[in-house]
Amino acid sequence: MFDYLIRRLVGTIPVLLAVSVIVFLFVHLLPGDPARLVAGPDASLQDIAAVRAEMGLDQPLPAQYLHYLGQTVQLHWGRSIKTHQTVAELIGERFMPTLLLTVFAMLWSVIAGVAIGVLSGVKRGRWVDRSAIVLAISGVSFPGFWLGLLLIDLFSVRLGWLPTGGYGSWQHFVLPAFTLGVGVAAVMARFTRSAFVEVTAEDYVRTARAKGVPERGVVWKHTLRNALIPVITLAGLQFGFLLGGAIVVETVFAWPGLGRLLVDSVAYRDYPVIQAEILLFSFEFVLINLIVDLLYGLVNPEIRLR
Amino acid sequence: MPRLLTRLLLGASLMFAASGAALAGKDLVVGVPDNLTGLDPADLNDNLSQSAARLMFEGLYMLDENMKLQPQLAGSFEANEEATQFIFHLRKGVTFHDGTPFNAVAVKASFDRAGNPANHLKRQSLFVMIDHTDAVDDYTVKVVLKYPFGAFVNDIAHIGALIVSPKSVQDFGKEVTRHPSGTGPYEFVSWTADTLKMKKNEHYWKPGLPKIDTITYRSVPENGARIAMLQTGEAQFIYPVPPEMIKSLQNSPTITVFDEPSILVRYIALNNLRKPFDDPRVRLALNYAVDKQAFIKVVFSGHADPMDSPMPQLLGFYQKQGSYPYDPAKAKALLAEAGYPNGFETTLTGASNTLAQRGMQFIQQQLAAVGVTAKVEPLEAGVLTDKMFNVQKPEDASIVMLYGGWSSSTGDADWGMRPMLYTKAFPPVLANLAWYSNKMTDAAIEEGLSTTDPTKRAAAYAKAQAQVWKDVPWIFLSVDHDLAAYSKKLTGASMRPDQQFHLTADATLN
Amino acid sequence: MSDVALSAPSLRSPAGEFWRRFRRKRVAVASGCVLLLLILTAVAAPWIAPYGPAAPDYDNLLAGPSWQHLCGTDTFGRDIFSRILWGGRISLTVGFVSVALGGLVGVALGLAAGFSGGVLDSLIMRVMDVLLAFPGILLAIGVVALLGPGIANVIYAIAVFSVPVFARLVRGSTLALKQTLYVQAARSIGVRAPLLMLHHILPGTLPSVIVYSSLRVGTSILTAAALSFIGLGAPPPSPEWGAMLADGRSYLGVADQIMLFPGLAIFVTVLAFNLLGDGLRDALDQRLR
């Protein structure tokens, strides 16, 4: 088990290295001069040269990459070109809001999604099933920012029940977490239903039924537990996507998170921040995959870890 | 893992605790569109951060809400006739937020730091004309220039020349941008992610002021969300308000709309070196082809004024030049005369934000009516700046029509013309994206800089404006209005013509 | 999305069997009809749209819905209903073409990876992992920034999104099909690898690819809208739905129709694609009846 963990973690190194090269090339080849952007439209050439020297952008590319790699390995991520804050600090203060938002969005959407999925799996083919599926699929069909703005218009401006955006009390979480989770809930519902139905067809469930185990017992003890495995995988993947993908929701709800930071950084060509953030996302992604694999073992001890 | 869990729980509990404490005291919340970039006045170039810095820092002189020069930390100044030597008499009994006394030494330290190229500060170009600064005595500063610079007092009224506590620079070095200490009415408290907090300076040199306890800047990028914030009372001042939303706020009994002319001019820079725009008749034709009133009505919902000079009205030495009225028949005739009876095809480049895209679309529609087919090319900011400035030779310029705007950040005529209309301002040096070059204009701009005598400067800039207006390097469009909205409980708040939030020292919030 | 749900498609079910089962999915059939109607109106837009998509009317700005303008008018006085009809051409094209492109590349890569195994497999799949780990919007920003604005570039940007998902899906099916008896048999009698891939394995992966494509078209339309939202979508005056929506967001509360109707158009179209894909999937996989 421990060996496995180590092997998996070591295995992520080449992936992260590849990501670091790609990201480095990506940001440096993207048209746009950060020095010019930072210095502003009415800056003089001296001002711009000053900024460029300050950022080390006057060095040749390979030298810049090696410098960047060396710094990254030592966990020195440099300073933001835009705000001079250390990247670690910047990402640090944006991490919690995004994590909390993602956790809340996942929490409600997984619970609601699994519940709807199980319900429609049990009542397969009936109107409950059909309407639940249509409802779930409607969820993934909304343009996120459209939904967000409509919700603000209704609940904040017209009804005055909830704040329009920003980060603070629990009320601030309701609308963004809902908007962010809608898509996930839909996917989870659809997926839970398939997994549930698939497992129901398995021999051991049929055996249990034949043995006369009461229907509720069949659902909870035999079916659900096994159906949960693929559901966990998907939830893990979704979590990874949400962490990186909350850009639109964070913009609409003025959420001080990582997604917005990324868009801002790209607009400013804030190289150190973009690089650090993408490495972080990739690492998270790998890590989540690992956790998902470990969870498999917890849900069903019979799945061995290679 | 357990630590992460603890942090999660802690985060959650803090969040619940915070909900109770909000709204206590007189906290002015300002909703702004973007995050700040820093708070070191010498290292800023965006309006937003500058407006925040202005609440905490002061300069020897300042531009008031009408762009008029006013003494602030200096009581008065004297200059020699050639505009090469300036003596400032400082105000007494002022201290910085960190307790350091304000005096001639602090001013000299501040100017020396900001102008030293080794410090890599973004506003060093404001100080390039300074030869040296002397502290004559505790409250007298003498600045000697390398060459005559008539706009010098305007220059140091710029945000980049606000006075920073020398102790804070010593203590924090480059990090002073996150630990600002000035002499202004409000003191820095904290700046995290998208929230800046300031509190009242109890020892402000104007007795009894300020009257507002705390100020919070909150960055809310989405226009609709920012407006909703004001409507629900979560913010007391928001800017900018998109022009199309003004109507919806005007009827509110609790909200005041701010709608005043700014100094931001909108124009289309035509590449004067490139066919067909090298022919003045073509450039003139396009000016007749665009209905400026309709442009303002459609793009700015009426909240803008037509340009009637290369400079906006509120800039010093502005002189009205007239107008190129909407006349598509005349435009067609001019195009035919220039050899384009059936028009031509071209590309109109600009920023990718909603307002710019709307403006470009309107121009496209207007040009289509006189037979000119313009493709609209909205570009992301990084790509756009690259296309604009990454040009070594004029022939390499890839932009032929640029939907642009300019606001003189010093509030002076020099900076309102020289960066876009002076031959030596061709990219990459500055922003002369029309590649406009006329010896008469160049001479007039140089003349305006070489003296402090207002009548001589006025004459020089009158000449420059008339020449540019005649040469039509641009399609002259409009002058933006500053659009903001605020709660009726707030007094003393406004927007300066340079698009910066302005709070008078005696502003109140009930 | 939930490609994991697609188990290896059953090879025994002929098209007729599939059609019989699909016909019973009333919701999916209805969605198919709605889509057909949308495609027809988009194709016929030049003849049925009451106004041109870019025809301004400065005397009729921001008008609410009326008999002259069914969905009202926008900032330039353009008829929103006509623009939605015209925009259908663009949005549907973006959806179809980007998925076709992404699918083509993804299927080829997945097939190659699954069939050859070994180093090539690892290489391709690691690259796909990296692509997946890269936040999608950023990828799109990169592509549009590098290539410049324009519908074609939006399509490429979105196609890049789809590649890794298709590759994974097809690789999975290929691995399963490689083990089937008839592929083994074909191999043993010396059928060459390219032929084997094209004739024996590719057809087997197609059903799941088709199902997934229909789900993906919806996602692509949404992504195009999101790109427009951050100002990188179809350049004006294109009536792409996302661009209309993005323009309308600043009129919320003043002229709701600019945002409401294109939003509805996107919602209905994406919903129809998703419901159709869902029905197709159910019909393909007998166990999920």
Content-based structural category of chain A: mainly alpha
pLDDT averaged residue by residue of chain A: 79
Number of helices of chain B: 15
User: What is the number of E strands of chain B?
Assistant: 19
Largest pleated sheet of chain B? 11 strands, mixed
Helix content of chain B: 25-40%
Strand content of chain A: under 5%
Features of this protein?
heterotrimer; A: 306 residues; 13 helices; B: 510 residues; alpha+beta; eleven-stranded mixed beta sheet; four-stranded antiparallel beta sheet; disordered N terminus
Q: Can you describe this structure?
A:
The complex is a heterotrimer of chains A (306), B (510) and C (289). Chain A is built from 13 helices and no strands. Chain A is mostly helical and 306 residues long. The model of chain A has no long low-confidence stretch (mean pLDDT 79). Chain B has 510 residues and is of the alpha+beta class. Chain B has helices at 2-21, 47-56, 104-115, 152-157, 166-172, 223-231, 246-250, 280-289, 292-299, 328-337, 354-368, 381-389, 413-421, 439-449, 454-471; strands at residues 27-32, 61-63, 69-71, 74-79, 85-90, 130-137, 140-145, 186-192, 195-200, 214-219, 237-238, 255-270, 304-306, 345-351, 373-379, 401-407, 474-487, 490-495, 501-509. In chain B, the strands form 4 sheets. In chain B, strands 1, 8, 9, 10, 11, 12, 13, 14, 15, 16 and 17 form an 11-stranded mixed sheet that branches. Chain B has a 4-stranded antiparallel sheet with strand order 4-5-7-6, with helices on one face. A two-stranded antiparallel ribbon of chain B has the order 2-3. In chain B, a hairpin with a 2-residue loop joins strand 8 and strand 9. In chain B, helix 13 packs antiparallel against helix 14. The relative contact order of chain B is 0.14. Helices cover 71% and strands 0% of the residues of chain C. In chain C, helix 4 packs antiparallel against helix 5, helix 4 (80-116) packs parallel to helix 11 and helix 9 (193-229) packs antiparallel against helix 11 (257-284). Chain C is elongated, with a radius of gyration of 22 Å. Chain C starts with 14 loop residues before the first helix and ends in a 5-residue tail after the last helix. Residues 1-10 of chain C have low confidence and may be disordered. Chains in contact: A-B, A-C, B-C. Chains A and B meet through helix 2, helix 3, helix 5, helix 7 and helix 8 of A and helix 1, helix 6 and helix 12 of B.
